[in-house]
Amino acid sequence: MSEFTVDTPLPHIPDNLNIPQFILREIASPRPQRSLSVPFFINDKTGRRISYEEVHKRTYGLANALSLKYAIGKGDVVCLLSPNHTDYAIVIWAVQTLGGIITPANPSYTADELTHQLTTSKAKLIVTHSACRNAAVEASRSSGISGDRLVLLVDPTLSPTVNSSTVEDLITFGISRPQSYKAQYLLPGEARTTIAFLSFSSGTTGKPKAVEISHFAVIANVIQMAAHYQIYDPVRPSRHMLPGDIALAVLPFFHIYGLVVIMHYILYCGMSIVVVPKFNFSNFLDSIIRHKITHLFLVPPQIVLLCKHQSVQKYDFSHVKFCLSGAAPLSGELMEQVTSILPNASIGQGYGLTETCASVALLPPDRKLATIGSAGRLLPGVVARVLKPDGTFAAEGEQGELVVTGPSMALRYLDNPKATAETFVGGWVRTGDEVIIKDFEVFVVDRLKEIIKVRGFQVSPAELEGHLLLHPDAVDACVVGVPHEYSGEVPLAFVVLESKARQRVNNNGSEEQALKRILCKHVSDAKAQYKWLAGGIEFVDEIPKNPSGKILRRSLREKAKALAKPVMARL
C-alpha cells in the first residue's frame, strides 16, 4: 500500500488545552515571542491597535457576561453571524472559555439558510453583526430562539436602531462583576473529543452539514503549519512568518481558511492581523500599502484582479513577502503573472477542507515560487493515500481520489451518520478530489464530488436543484459548475420544463428568455449571491441518469463547458 508522508518531525501537540488557553496563555510550546508593541489585531479603517492584554481582558469580560446573563456553559452552541470584526475572535474565545461551541455563519446567508444552520446546530444564542440583524431576527423566530437571546456585534460606524444587548455592553458588564464561571480545564486526551466549532460544509452532496471540529484539531493544524514553516528552528528561524509581520484578513473568518490559517495560526506566530470586514478591491490595495502588509492570504478571484486591474500598476508591493492562494485551484498562468506584481513574495497555493480542519498541504518553505499546478506540499503529520477507481492505492505519479488522515481531522458530521460514513472512514477523510502526488506535492486533477466552488465558497448542486423544483414550471433539474475567469466556477442549471411551459417557450425566443429570468430570480430571491445562477439556464428535454436514477453529471458538465462562452471579469 502506497502512503505519502513527509519526514519533518512534528512537535508535541497538547491534548489537554482548549483553544483560548493555547492562544492566550502561550504555555503550549516554544513559539515565537510577541513583543508588547506588536498588537493582535488592527482595525483596517481606523488603524486602532488591539494588544494581547486588551484581547485577554475583553475575552474574560465577555465570558463572564455570557455566563451571568445567558448561562452559557459546557456544550452550549452559540451562532456567530458577522463579517470580519476585531471582536470576532473575542466572541469565539469567550464562548469556548465557558466550554461552549461556536458555529460560524456566512453573513450573506438569507434567513432560510441561517435557519437551517441554527436548527441543525441547536444554537442557543446568536451573536450577530448589526448589518446582519434582519436575517438573524427572522431566523431566530423560525428556529425557536427567543428575541432576548440575540446579541449585536455593532459596527462602530453605525448606531444600533433597536434595544438589544451589544457585545461592547456585555464586555463592560462582565469586567465590572466578580468572575461567575469556572474556566474549562480538560484532562489529558479530552481536547481530542471536545467540540470547539460546528463549521458548515456541503461535503459531497446536499444541504450544508455541521462538521464537528475539536479543540485538538485546530491546535494540531496550527502546530503542523508551524512545523512546516520551521518557526521553531532556533538555528534557521522561518523567513516566512516572523513576530511583527502583518497579515491582511480580507478572507472571511467564518470560512475554515480564515478561521484556522489566518486567525489562529498567524497569531500563534506572533504576527498582527489587519481586520477587513468586506473586500473592496481599491480599498484592498490601499490597505496593503497603508499597513505595510507582509502576508496576503487570498483566493483566485483576488489574484485575477491583482494581475489584470490597471490601477495595480501604480502601487509598490515590494514589502509583501508571502502570498498564499487557497479555497480553489489557481492556474499556473496567474501564478506566474502575480510574481511581477509581488516581486519579493514567496507565492504558492494551499489545500485543505473543512473536514480536515484546514490545511493538508501548503507552499513548501524552501520555495519562492511553487511548482506550477501544485496545491502544496503535505504538512508534517499528514498521511495521504491515492485511491484508484478499482479500489487499489496508487503509486507516486498515479491518479486517484485523495484520502488523508492526521491529527487535525474533524470528527464527524453532527447527527448525520450516513454522510459521516461516506466521508469519515476509519480515521481517514475521503476528500472527493482526484489528485496526483509527486515528491510529496499534491496536484489536483479533477473534483470527483459534486460541489461547485464559487470564489472559494461551496455551492451544493442538490440545494439549487431542490429549490428550482419548487417552481411550478420546472419538473427536473441539474446544476453544474462552469468555468469563470473571476469566480473560478459559477452555477449553470439544466432544467426540464413542465409540458405547458415547454409549449409556451417553443419557437418563442422572448418567452424563453423571460422564463429563464423568472427561474433565475426564483433562485436569487432565496439564496446568497454566490449561489445565484450566474452561468445561466439551459432548457433540455431530459436530465440523463443511470438505471438507478443517479444524474450523469459528468456528461452535463461537458455539455455546459461547450455551451458556456468565456466571460471576462469586469475590472
TrEMBL record:
<feature type="domain" description="AMP-binding enzyme C-terminal">
    <location>
        <begin position="463"/>
        <end position="550"/>
    </location>
</feature>
<dbReference type="InterPro" id="IPR000873">
    <property type="entry name" value="AMP-dep_synth/lig_dom"/>
</dbReference>
<dbReference type="InterPro" id="IPR045851">
    <property type="entry name" value="AMP-bd_C_sf"/>
</dbReference>
<keyword id="KW-0472">Membrane</keyword>
<feature type="domain" description="AMP-dependent synthetase/ligase">
    <location>
        <begin position="40"/>
        <end position="414"/>
    </location>
</feature>
<keyword id="KW-1133">Transmembrane helix</keyword>
<dbReference type="InterPro" id="IPR025110">
    <property type="entry name" value="AMP-bd_C"/>
</dbReference>
<dbReference type="GO" id="GO:0016405">
    <property type="term" value="F:CoA-ligase activity"/>
</dbReference>
<protein>
    <recommendedName>
        <fullName>4-coumarate--CoA ligase</fullName>
    </recommendedName>
</protein>
<dbReference type="Pfam" id="PF13193">
    <property type="entry name" value="AMP-binding_C"/>
</dbReference>
<dbReference type="Pfam" id="PF00501">
    <property type="entry name" value="AMP-binding"/>
</dbReference>
<keyword id="KW-0812">Transmembrane</keyword>
<dbReference type="InterPro" id="IPR020845">
    <property type="entry name" value="AMP-binding_CS"/>
</dbReference>
<dbReference type="InterPro" id="IPR042099">
    <property type="entry name" value="ANL_N_sf"/>
</dbReference>
<feature type="transmembrane region" description="Helical">
    <location>
        <begin position="246"/>
        <end position="268"/>
    </location>
</feature>
